[in-house]
């Protein structure tokens, strides 16, 4: 049980100050921009909620948001089960564990613009390994600069390549924390592989998986650098996700007001979905305790 | 057991393919890369690496990145440790709200917040310093570090703290000599995540620096475009960005493998 102690605030204070410095002040600036109009001469005019109305009513925003949700949905449905499956089949002991973990972590340690650049060259039809192979050996007409479907497949593959290891790492951590006694008990009861997974492994992995889902949701929902370098949002607008559209408006057209309004709406959506995930997990936790008590 | 290991092997092969492509490209000349497809370098060259190791703008890029990433990891851990302890052991006014609020800071679309960040750090006179990037990256690393450490600490029974107090340990001495060694695996994992996210982030690092503290990733984009895409050089620079990360994983690999086992993370 936790004890009540208001002095604990002093422990949290440094974190609070550092994060607030980085979060609150820039956030205030963005809020400021979102209700003002400027003509680039450092004079600002009050605009009220015009930008918010404009963004919420624009088709451009809706389609970027739709693409963003579709992308994140695909990413989560591929990476979470795949990561769990790989973690389940990894060795638990011995030298291969280190080898697996080191090799699997490598993609995560490459700076995001390098990831975008290497996948760009990797998939070029004439000179890239994947592009050359698909076009000249398999015989598929694959060019992600021309074909929106190819561009989507490439981005999804890149993200799976880049981030599935995060899920593997977390799921593996959850798995090795299960005491052997649980497995022995299951063996005596004659439990099938599936019921071992369903009633022992999955519940034990729930906490780490929640973190994995939250992290993957937030990071894929905010994805920018990799996609920007890989496709630049193209061909056409087919891979223009929310963040890419945002930067186009903010830095390309220098429309700070609409861009600020858009990023606040964006932020609110991310917050809402994350909060849903978070509370769902907490409610499940409460149910678990009740079950134990009865 | 043997059949099962096929899955990780296939997965690792899939991971290695693009990396293999990057590494082989770094040994090719730019002309060879652009001319045609080849699985191995036809004219093996180390020119790209020579350029990087002899030109200060290149190798200082790596040094700058390593400086701010290390700074960020140290700062994140130092402030996250007591906070995580408070969250795992005590109830206090607004603790749950605060815990979730911390997380929300990972959600802000950095793309648009980059400009306000630039204004903020210019205003306090930290623009183009390593500490600016190190502090700015705290916005996503501290919440993660607190989260991970809190998980590990909650896995340690509270009796450990109580026994130490009964034995007459002061809080700082207990924390440093008993508690910290017990959760060192958690610290290793948290450090790995901080290092990783700070090392790969570019947008803020690029916005907050100009010359003195310029990160390697920014050096790469600039040189590549001004010289009309020197792909060999770009590939070599990209290959070298993997190495510091690989060294860090090598040192924390045991923590990652066994360490996670302790906490619920």
List descriptors:
heterodimer; A: 294 residues; mainly alpha; two-stranded antiparallel ribbon; 12 helices; B: 265 residues; 14 helices; 75% helix; globular
Q: Give the uncertain stretches of chain A in residue-range form.
A: 288-294
> Between the first and last Cα atoms of chain A, what is the distance in angstroms?
20 Å
Summed up, the helix count of chain B is 14
Multimeric status of the protein = heterodimer
Helix residue percentage of chain A = over 70%
Q: How large, in whole angstroms, is the Cα Rg of chain B? A: 22 Å
Query: Helix segment count of chain A?
Result: 12
**Uncertain parts of chain B:** none
Our Rg estimate of chain A from Cα atoms comes to 23 Å
Q: What series of H and E elements makes up the topology of chain A?
A: EHEEHHHHHHHHHHH
State the major sheet of chain B: none
H-E string of chain B: HHHHEHHHHHHHHHH
Basic shape of chain B: globular
The biggest beta sheet of chain A reads: 2 strands, antiparallel
Largest interface: A-B, 97 and 104 residues
Report the sheet-strand fraction of chain A: under 5%
What is the structural class of chain A? mainly alpha
Molecular shape of chain A? globular
> What is the number of E strands of chain B?
1
Helix-and-strand structural type of chain B: mainly alpha
């Amino acid at each position: 049980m936790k004890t009540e102690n208001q002095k604990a605030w002093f422990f949290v204070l440094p974190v609070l100050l550092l994060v607030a410095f980085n979060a609150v002040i820039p956030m205030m600036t963005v809020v400021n921009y979102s209700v003002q109009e400027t003509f680039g001469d450092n004079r600002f005019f009050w605009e009220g909620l015009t930008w918010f109305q404009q963004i919420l009513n624009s088709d451009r925003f809706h389609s970027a948001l739709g693409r963003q949700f579709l992308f994140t949905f695909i990413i989560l449905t591929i990476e979470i089960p795949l990561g769990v499956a790989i973690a389940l089949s990894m060795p638990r002991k011995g030298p291969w564990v280190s080898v697996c973990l080191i090799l699997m972590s490598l993609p995560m340690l490459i700076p995001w613009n390098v990831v975008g650049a290497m996948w760009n060259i990797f998939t070029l039809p004439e000179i890239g390994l994947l592009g050359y192979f698909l076009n000249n050996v398999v015989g598929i007409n694959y060019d992600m600069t021309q074909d929106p479907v190819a561009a989507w497949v490439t981005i999804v593959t890149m993200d799976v390549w880049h981030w599935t290891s995060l899920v593997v790492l977390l799921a593996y951590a959850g798995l090795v924390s299960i005491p052997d006694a649980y497995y022995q008990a299951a063996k005596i009861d004659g439990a099938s592989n599936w019921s071992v997974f369903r009633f022992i492994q999955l519940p034990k992995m729930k906490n780490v998986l929640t973190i994995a889902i939250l992290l993957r949701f937030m990071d894929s929902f905010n994805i920018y650098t990799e996609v920007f370098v890989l496709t630049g949002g193209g061909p056409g607008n087919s891979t223009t996700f929310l963040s890419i559209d945002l930067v186009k408006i903010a830095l390309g057209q220098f429309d700070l007001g609409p861009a600020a309004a858009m990023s606040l709406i964006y932020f609110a959506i991310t917050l809402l979905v994350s909060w849903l995930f978070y509370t769902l997990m907490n409610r499940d936790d409460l149910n678990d305790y009740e079950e134990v008590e009865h | 057991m043997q059949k099962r290991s096929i899955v990780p092997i296939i997965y690792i092969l899939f991971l290695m393919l693009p990396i293999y492509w990057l590494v082989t490209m770094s040994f090719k000349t730019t002309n060879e890369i652009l001319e045609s497809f080849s699985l191995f370098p036809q004219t093996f060259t180390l020119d790209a690496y020579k350029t990087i190791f002899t030109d200060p703008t290149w190798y200082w890029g790596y040094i700058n990145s390593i400086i701010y990433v290390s700074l960020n990891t140290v700062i994140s851990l130092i402030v996250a440790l007591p906070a995580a302890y408070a969250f795992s052991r005590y109830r206090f006014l607004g603790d749950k709200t605060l815990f979730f609020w911390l997380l929300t800071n990972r959600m802000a679309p950095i793309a648009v917040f980059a400009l306000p960040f630039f204004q903020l750090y210019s205003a306090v006179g930290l623009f183009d310093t390593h500490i600016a990037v190190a502090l700015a990256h705290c916005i996503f690393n501290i919440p993660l570090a607190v989260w991970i450490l809190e998980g590990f600490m909650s896995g340690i029974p509270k009796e450990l703290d109580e026994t130490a107090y009964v034995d007459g340990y002061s809080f700082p001495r207990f924390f440093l000599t008993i508690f910290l060694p017990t959760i060192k695996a958690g610290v290793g994992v948290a450090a790995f995540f901080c290092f990783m996210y700070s090392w790969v982030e570019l947008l803020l690092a690029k916005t907050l620096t100009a010359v003195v503290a310029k990160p390697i990733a920014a050096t790469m984009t600039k040189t590549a475009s001004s010289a009309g895409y020197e792909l060999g050089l770009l590939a070599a620079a990209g290959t070298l960005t993997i190495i510091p990360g690989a060294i860090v994983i090598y040192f924390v690999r045991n923590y990652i493998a066994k360490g996670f086992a302790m906490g619920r993370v």
